[in-house]
């Protein structure tokens, strides 16, 4: 069965170009111009993957609002932001809301297709993992449930995305061992760039600190990567 992709983009030329390219790859594509059109469709049926422009018409954060809605409905649905904006603030804002990737509109269609394919492979891989795994990891006050893709710290649930879960999983599997950004990208089963990995790490830390103000287990090893302090 063809994967169902939702594209929310207010620029007609860009929207039509992406729809044509994605359909050539065999995807079932539905496109929307406004936040409300997309929201109405999502309330009826969720897509298998969503590509969201940040600014939609006269709503400069319409895409962010759609991301919030989708993430509330599903922790695993892949979400990509596609936008003309390219600042660290916009990137971190999108990732903080639970997006899996963040692409600027000057990126080639080939690269967009590669990243979409990678995210779908991740979902297929996760299904296999969920079918075969029976793993509960406990490190200090952290607990990771690989079957349910959930995490808690000091018995308090951590509201983390799937990408964050796998990055955290990679770090705690071998406490004290440094993981570079490429290894963390591989662990997340997605194609993201260095700045995106950095943003995910920042978000993870903030979520731990919200529970435990003295949390300092995720350590930056400058020039090398990150590790979970043993």
Automatic annotation (TrEMBL):
Residues 4-120 form the Response regulatory domain. InterPro entries: CheY-like_superfamily (IPR011006), OmpR/PhoB-type_DNA-bd (IPR001867), Response_regulator (IPR022305), Sig_transdc_resp-reg_C-effctor (IPR016032), Sig_transdc_resp-reg_receiver (IPR001789), WalR-like (IPR039420), WH-like_DNA-bd_sf (IPR036388). Pfam families: Response_reg, Trans_reg_C. The modification 4-aspartylphosphate is found at residue 53. It comes from Aliikangiella coralliicola. Residues 134-230 bind DNA. One of its GO terms (biological process) is regulation of DNA-templated transcription. Residues 134-230 form the OmpR/PhoB-type domain. Keywords: DNA-binding, Phosphoprotein, Transcription, Transcription regulation, Two-component regulatory system. This is Proteobacterial dedicated sortase system response regulator. SUPFAM superfamilies: C-terminal effector domain of the bipartite response regulators, CheY-like. GO terms for cellular component: cytosol; protein-DNA complex. GO terms for molecular function: phosphorelay response regulator activity; transcription cis-regulatory region binding.
